[in-house]
Design brief:
about 300 residues; alpha+beta; Arc Repressor Mutant, subunit A; Beta Polymerase, domain 2; six-stranded mixed β-sheet; 12 helices; 8 strands; about 15% strand
Length: about 300
């Protein structure tokens, strides 16, 4: 098997974890590189779209492992995920519309620099019952006040997730200040998920070029994803409805700190799942990165990659 063929199949195998087939263009964009330190055997460096297309059409090792349908590539025996992806794309349009409306409100909060759609919605791969994850960047010294104000507004509007409701709810589980944009310290050993998470973010509000600064601060992801590009989506950009003042950050910090649930208090700052400080608020209590990494490595081994 050629080096490029190994990288093509291992990339498809990674997205198969999420039942997400790829077009040829998407495969080129998300192609994994051997410069990563992953447990899979990855060999291809930066290559052209035409090289990917030719390999998909002509390489027998690839054709013995992958199939194509409706313009999507997937592992043999997984053809059902094409219809699932198309269904999720339709669901994502509804969720994007809500995300844009909510971002028009939240972007008016003093100190908000960027709002981006994250996780499955960023790939237009949301489940119908899923919530809407937003990644928020604030100016320095405004992290706690922005989160507190945003959470309060969403509570008033009934838009925050709860135990009995998550469909289309707005989740504010990750905020950073714009002097802490580099997220590499959060990476686990051999962690492909974080690089994909960073590269897939879709900015829907950007005040002062923060999206470009975020990409520059996270160029380390190119070690795994050398063909990833800066993906601004002007058609989905939000504009603030009106300015919203915030309380002093020290007050907002004390207020929220007292109200953290027991699980957050138990997990905070033990590792990169839950991070609580004046530069980053990350509340991923159900962080599955290690699981995804291990399943991907095992899948690659099963295919002798």
């Amino acid at each position: 098997m050629t080096e490029l063929a190994r990288s093509i199949v291992s990339t498809i195998a990674y997205f198969d974890l999420f039942s997400f087939p790829l077009t040829t263009l998407e495969l080129w964009r998300w192609l994994h590189s051997d410069r990563s330190q992953s447990g899979c055997t990855l060999h291809a460096a930066r290559c052209t779209l035409s090289e990917i297309d030719r390999s998909l059409r002509e390489d027998l090792d690839i054709r013995s492992r992958l199939l194509t349908q409706g313009g999507f590539w997937f592992l043999r025996g997984r053809g059902e995920i094409v219809a699932e992806r198309l269904r999720r794309q339709r669901i994502a349009e509804r969720k994007y519309a809500r995300a844009r409306r909510v971002s028009r409100l939240l972007s008016g909060i003093a100190g908000v620099r960027m709002i981006a759609v994250a996780n499955t919605l960023a790939l237009s791969a949301s489940r119908d019952e899923g919530d809407i994850d937003l990644f928020v960047v604030t100016k320095p010294g405004a992290l706690w006040s922005v989160r507190g104000t945003a959470a309060g507004l969403l509570d008033l509007l009934g838009l925050r997730p709860s135990n009995d409701r998550s469909r289309d709810a707005i989740c504010l589980s990750f905020l950073v200040s714009d002097d802490a944009l580099n997220l590499s310290a959060l990476a686990l050993p051999n962690d492909p998920y974080l690089a994909h998470w960073v590269a897939s973010l879709v900015s829907i509000y950007d005040n002062g070029g923060i999206y470009d600064a975020f990409w520059k601060a996270n160029e380390w992801i190119l070690d795994l994803l050398p063909n990833a590009w800066n993906r601004q989506t002007i058609e989905r950009a939000a504009r603030p409805l009106f300015p919203i003042p915030t309380p002093p950050d020290t007050f907002a910090r004390k207020y929220q700190w007292k109200r953290f649930p027991p699980l957050i208090r138990e997990m905070m700052n033990l590792d990169s799942r839950v991070v609580v400080n004046d530069y980053m608020l990350k509340f991923h209590t159900n962080d599955r990165r290690e699981e995804f990494r291990d399943r991907w490595i095992e899948k690659c081994r099963e295919m002798n990659l």
